[in-house]
What we know:
The structure is a homodimer.
Chain A: H1 3-11, H2 18-29, H3 36-46, H4 52-64, E1 69-72, E2 78-81, E3 88-92, E4 98-101, H5 104-116, E5 122-135
Parallel strand pairs in A: 3-5
Antiparallel strand pairs in A: 1-2, 3-4
The structure holds a DNA duplex.
Amino acid sequence: MSEFFRKALKEKGLKVTPQRVAIFEAITHLKNHPTAENIIAYIKKNHPNISVGTVYKVLDSFVENKLLSKVKTEKDIMRYDSVLTNHHHLYCTETDRIEDYEDEQLNKLIEDYFKAHKIKNFNIQEVKLQITGKFNN
Amino acid sequence: MSEFFRKALKEKGLKVTPQRVAIFEAITHLKNHPTAENIIAYIKKNHPNISVGTVYKVLDSFVENKLLSKVKTEKDIMRYDSVLTNHHHLYCTETDRIEDYEDEQLNKLIEDYFKAHKIKNFNIQEVKLQITGKFNN
DNA sequence: TTCCTCAAAGATAATAATTCTTATTTAGGA
DNA sequence: TCCTAAATAAGAATTATTATCTTTGAGGAA
């Protein structure tokens, strides 16, 4: 299944270990931007012999190698995000939910805007929106 | 000087203590979105008798009462932002610098966009941009 | 102005999340 | 199959933050 993942690791010169596979699976299984704690709990259930320190180190190495990114909430809790396409986030002020928001038209709009309006002394690499509000359901 | 600040505290029913004044001054003095640590260090110099716990508690109460806001970054350290007008952030990938970016035209563009393109099941309260890139200076 | 009360501050212990250390194991190339 | 560097396990250490409990003082009332 995760052929893409094995290939990605190899390209970066990282070894394909059972721990890394398990953690990658955990993240793809856990939706909604899990915290390290969520991931550790899930891992504990299915692979009780993987140590906590390893989970942190693996997560770090994934972030370093752009297989994951980190997201921060108001509440100081770090979360991980497995989606690698350019997308934005919806933050719920009531619950702690974070959802992805993809919108090509919006991306285009912003890209065009910044092409026309350069920021002085700053080279833009990426623009992400934090859309805060409330889900109604 | 910080008449606005004293008034704001009173309005919220909060006492105007020397500690709160000192911490408020520290934040207005420290540019670039200081961390709690930055603030504590600054406070220590000028008011060595203010305790660390107090700084955290005061910062929390400021955030709760909308005198400050917290900034989300990918790093796990929380930063504080004293500017309360709607603005965006420039994140430098090289240094850890965060700068404010205000742009009325952009705000208008985004506002109009979301007026025309509602997000399903979500009521937007605020949209902020995280603009990542590099400063060249 | 003085007094009183409750919110706020100080000191420090406790907690929680993450990082570090060191010994051991193992993936994957030779 | 063997070898080596990279990765993991285990648990100690660190760090940031929160909680507790006692003392202090801001600010309203008398």
